[in-house]
Specification:
Shape: globular
CATH topology of the largest domain: Nucleotidyltransferase, domain 5
Radius of gyration: 24 Å
Order of helices and strands: HHEHHHEEEEEHHHEHEEHHHH
Low-confidence stretches: 1-20, 33-81, 342-350
Distance between the termini: 47 Å
CATH architecture of the largest domain: 2-Layer Sandwich
Number of strands: 9
Helix content: 25-40%
Strand order of the largest sheet: 6-5-4-7-9
Length: about 350
């Protein structure tokens, strides 16, 4: 199946590929769609431009005009599904998976937002969504017909999970505004102890605002010889791979890493996440503040070198280890149990 790059027309949302008359008949396409499929043979057709045109105008498509494939190759047998992974953004199925990270969605919403087919009839939307996702072990269909990620269906025990606690310092507050990563650190937890697994400055390839420089102590001169994100992307992915992504206000750090990986590698970041702000709101409701400093004070330690990625990642890892212990004492056994304790909106980064 091949989808139009431009907005769909009034009469057809999906058209068969060139030379697909036999399959069009087998699939039961009727009327103009069948005649159009039959007319897309391999020979020259009067009035068409030479090879190298746009396939949606009845011309031979260049490689650059081809739509992303529906699916990536199947997962390896026995490959674990829990933990951070990076998926190719060229696959429509992977784009659908990234879309489902926000929660279950109906076929019509998937087809509208992932495939840019806003007026697809319900029956067509169901068939297209099934073609994308049915049989994918990462996705399940709920009793109400919506599609959802299948991670919670076979949630691993918390004791079997590995965690990567991430802190990102950036040139601003949002990658959508063009802000970039200027420092990243990843801490891991083993036997209840936090250790720094990775830390580096990053050349953001843009000026650092004076406010950010005052807050972090990171200046243009400090990052002048630091690696660009493209040079550290593989190491970051290897450090995160197979681990649950944890951060203090996870949306901030996840959004920046996701934007950098999409920009430099055309990869979509996917996987389970946990937020220390959300967990603290659920598990420590009497606290008036759940900033990183407030939680560190509550658990009896001080952060030295605040607003730098390394110290903040280590602090967040210590806090998460404490919160994880509280959650287990309150009955959390699996990663899904922990997720149900993250039911409040994540707070503003502090």
């Amino acid at each position: 199946m091949q989808f139009l790059r431009r907005a769909p027309g009034r009469r057809r949302h999906v058209r068969p590929e060139r030379g697909d008359a036999a399959r069009a008949r087998a699939c039961g396409l009727q009327g103009p769609a069948r005649r159009e499929a039959a007319g897309r043979g391999g020979g020259a057709v009067p009035g068409r431009r030479p090879a190298g045109g746009h396939h949606d105008r009845g011309e031979r498509a260049r490689a650059g005009w081809r739509r992303p494939p529906l699916h990536d190759p199947p997962l390896e047998a026995g490959r674990p599904l829990t933990g951070v992974a990076a998926l190719s953004s060229s696959s429509l199925a992977n784009r659908a998976l990234a879309y489902l990270e926000a929660g279950p969605a109906a076929s019509a919403a998937l087809v509208r937002d992932v495939l840019a087919l806003p007026r697809a009839p319900r029956g067509l939307a169901d068939r297209v969504a099934a073609a994308l996702l049915a049989g994918d072990p990462r996705v399940t269909r709920l009793s109400d017909g919506r599609w959802a990620l299948a991670g919670a269906a076979a949630s691993p025990p918390l004791d079997a999970c590995r965690f990567a606690v991430v802190d990102v310092e950036a040139t601003g507050t949002s990658p959508r505004r063009g802000h970039r990563v200027l420092e990243i650190a990843v801490a891991t937890i083993a036997d209840g102890k936090a250790r720094l697994a990775y830390e580096t400055l990053v050349n953001p390839e843009q000026p650092i605002a004076p406010l950010v420089a005052r807050l972090t102590g990171i200046t243009d001169q400090l990052v002048r010889d630091a690696p660009r994100f493209d040079g550290i992307a593989d190491v970051v992915l290897a450090t995160l791979a197979g681990r649950v992504f944890v951060a203090h206000n996870v949306r901030f750090d996840w959004a920046f890493l996701g934007a950098e990986l999409l920009r430099t590698r055309s990869l979509l970041l996917q996987g389970p996440r946990a937020c220390t702000v959300r967990l603290a709101r659920r598990l420590l409701p009497p606290l008036a503040s759940r900033t990183l400093d407030a939680l560190a004070h509550y658990f009896g330690f001080e952060i030295v070198g605040r607003h730098r990625a390394g110290p903040d990642a280590l602090a967040a890892a210590r806090i998460f280890a404490e919160l994880l212990d509280i959650a287990k004492r309150r009955g959390a056994v699996t990663l899904a149990d922990l997720g149900q304790m993250r039911n409040a909106e994540c707070g503003v980064r502090n």
